[in-house]
Inner membrane transport protein YbaT
Amino acid sequence: MSSDYKKNSLTLFDAIAMGTGVMIGAGILALTGQIAELAGPLFPIVFISGAVVTAFSAYTYIKMSNAYPSAGGIGMILQKAYGPTAITAGAALLMALSMVINESLVARTFASYLLRGLDLPPSGWLLPAISVGVILFAFLINVSGNRSIGLFSTIMAALKVGGIALFGFAALWAGGFSFEATGEGTDLGGLSGFIASTALAILAFKGFTTITNSGAEITDPHHNVGRAIVAAISICILVYLLVAFAVGSSLPLEKIIEAKDYALAEAAKPTLGSVGFYLTVALALVATSSGLIASMFAVSRMLAMLTEMKLIPHSHFGMPGVIRDHTLVYTVFVAALLAVFFDLSQIASLGAFFYLVMDIIIHWGVFRHLRSDVAARGWILLIAIGLDAVVLAAFAMLKLQHDPAIVAYAVAGIIVVFLFVKAFLHFNPPGAEEEHSH
């Protein structure tokens, strides 16, 4: 495996493909049913609210990445805003964990669609076993180097965006452009359910940070990082809306919720028949596997940068290679554990909590310390913070009512992360080795 960062190894199209690869893999396939469960009949509109929140959020990342393109992306932004502190290390680790959580989410989605395609129930020991298997497959692709990842991501992104969009058009056409997902499928719904479900929709777009984390390896990064982020988000909102309305035209709300882990495949049956069903399963397998590969590529580089910045501990555990090789292995290990022990709903909830907390920290840091340096408008940064806070509060309140354990896991996880890095930096202050050598 090549362990050096390679400037200009990812083109603008590669970057867009990586971003859409992560977003579409997790978004429309893994989250449509869960969003419908929370939001009720208005679930397609939730993707618009998620896109609005993401647009304000992306502004910060674009401004920072255009000014300081980096292979560590999120870590770089936090370092610039807060310096080598526990806030930087803790927030960056939350982002890394949310990305690893996304990998386990996508892996379990892959397994659910595969088992459904084989006419087997998406449960039992096969579900985590297949999830771990596709994570290992993504690892093998990643060790082949940047060029292979870029080419693979571009091909897969073209296939799945085109294929899933075709599914949406076909399902809408066959369904007569009607909308069947009406009525109350759960005791949730309403305004609070709509706002809370926006937290999950944000997860469907957060793959744009994959582009940020690969900034130094993208050609002409001062311009192309921002272009890639805008293009990827724009492509995804069109695909999400098309498919969400297609699912709603094919299935009543209660059926969407019942099949929430494989909603697209189930929606293909009534309108497109068995051929459409199996083609949709195949598309889902392509989308999830390529999304997993792109996410793994980015998070391993982010962890490597944090290690090189001496903000988190590192041990090679006897493995050959350099830091980036090792962080890829750590990523695979943690993602596999999550895929084995948590279900899709719990995984998505953990990811939403970690990501939104990290996002607020980033916006606040840029607002307080960097907005003049990168020519960012303060009011946009404050709106981004406010939107994140409202969505996070609504999501937490809803989960406290229906799944308080996952809120406890999230809060405990956030506290442990910050205590861990605080202790590490106390005993290993950044710069200590350099000062000692002088």
